[in-house]
Sequence to fold (500 residues):
Amino acid sequence: MSNRQIKTDVILIGAGIMSATLGSLLKELVPDWEITVFEKLASAGEESSNEWNNAGTGHAALCELNYTSEKPDGSIDISKAIKINEQFQVSKQFWSYLVSSKLISNPQDFIMPLPHMSLVQGEQDVEFLKKRFEAMSNNPLFQGMEYSDDPEKLAEWLPLVMTDRTSDEPIAATKIDSGTDVNFGALTRMLFDHLQNKNVEVKYEHSVDDIKRTSDGLWELKVKNHKNGVVQRHTAKFVFIGGGGGSLHLLQKSGIPEGKHIGGFPVSGIFMVCKNPDVVEQHHAKVYGKAKVGAPPMSVPHLDTRYIDNKKSLLFGPFAGFSPKFLKTGSMFDLITSVKPNNVLTMLAAGAKEMALTKYLIQQVMLSKEQRMEELREFIPNAKSEDWDMVVAGQRVQVIKDTEAGGKGTLQFGTEVITAADGSIAALLGASPGASTAVSVMLELIKKCFPQQINEWEPKLKEMIPTYGVSLMAHPELIQEIHTSTDRALELSKELALSK
Ligand SMILES: Cc1cc2nc3c(=O)[nH]c(=O)nc-3n(C[C@H](O)[C@H](O)[C@H](O)COP(=O)(O)OP(=O)(O)OC[C@H]3O[C@@H](n4cnc5c(N)ncnc54)[C@H](O)[C@@H]3O)c2cc1C
Fold:
């Protein structure tokens, strides 16, 4: 190992959408800060952010039934849906700024308009969907949502789903045309190209193997260059651990107290992908169903039109499963090596609590292709096995921590930003709603880690994200304005794009 320390202002670990977003925000806020990125793989966006490893849903809570719950009095709680929708509007504003400033181009290479639909079957679920529609359609954030339980209308919206449907159970759907399909892999690569144009050093095939604090308050990283085996020491004033599933191990290495008593629970995924172009052409929407009883929220089945490699595709899934790896390219020892003296009790408590989930995930792994086809046939009754292949999706590491509400070892389904008390290091854990909310999550991180600079940065933040610091729900008059300006910049509406 070389004894020379290589100094920089900021180090971002991992070249996924989170580091790409944080790097792009910081480059606009403080162009002269030196930023270095270390990525252990050969290119950007190869893990969860890759287009084949996630579902590409621009999560705006337009169709995901798990973001709205039924309260004991039977009314529908849409507060989580409002939060996620507002976060997605923030992402769209930042992407629009990048496009309008010509920092990235061709928005259609990463974002496409696509109706978002929720589909349910059975009296109880139809009743729930109707109530949900009534609660949401009056809210300006969800304007334009339609509901139907008329089979003829549904056949118009969803020809593939309604053809050859023999069940006489009630069926209903909601549809909203302002949804999107986002190619987060393409966006990540575009953002890294942009960062490299701005002199950010992006070092691929370099893994960060250790992190420690130096006596002068900097963070020192031990970095291995996999091309030549050389190990170097790099120091920075601020480090972001954006290693996706790899973040927990790195956070533990940093030794910060905020990273203790936290564990990770990996959930793997499989998509079915349609290889028959005639079938692909008959569907044009993201259609989310309801998770089966006992299934975790990330395994809600959905049938999605996707735009990948400039081609329309059709994917179904994800089927959740269990693998001890924390990254798709990770190690079978990831889970076991994440158990430390400070989190062993938390992990054991979670293990005892989540037996049913573990059993469910293991059963899911064992499903044959034909059994998966049976689940797909709940969406497409006449789906043929020969038209579909299986593809392995990314790994999601759900956070396990002790909470007041859930007690010791509670499994979390959201994302968590963990920061040191002095803001010099931060890590992102968890996976949902994920990439769609990357901009809001990174803004929250910036606020926590750079409290001295945030006021000075506010004008630039408002230039990039006009509703920065403003709740859209409290200012409904802004909603239409934001929709129009982002739809125009991101070319989400043909008429607006033409009038640019
Ligand atoms: C099946 C599935 C479906 C999903 N669907 C959606 C969806 O529809 N919409 C949505 O918004 N989100 C979705 N997500 C979530 C979304 O994909 C993630 O939240 C997001 O991609 C995470 O980005 P990231 O940058 O944190 O991690 P990643 O993209 O995983 O990037 C982390 C990077 O860090 C690198 N790395 C790790 N350890 C080290 C190390 N020690 N040294 C150097 N480099 C390292 C890795 O190689 C990797 O490139 C889905 C995820 C999965 C798995």
In short: The first strand starts at residue 5 and ends at 13. The CA atoms of residues 273 and 389 lie 5 Å apart. The first helix runs from residue 17 to 29.
